[in-house]
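Sequence decides. Our protein:
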Amino acid sequence: MKARVAAYKYPRYVWLVDSLPKGPTGKILRRAVEVPEQVRQR
């Protein structure tokens, strides 16, 4: 991915979670997404 996409477009970190916080319309609340503890400690 790094070779084909500009540096600002590819994801720096990816982690999998069971669910994401959603608002009443069903959209993901990006401000409410928290970084998992395992990632934060690195």
About this structure: The mean pLDDT is 86. The CA atoms of residues 21 and 29 lie 6 Å apart. The chain has one helix and no strands. The helical segments are 37-40.
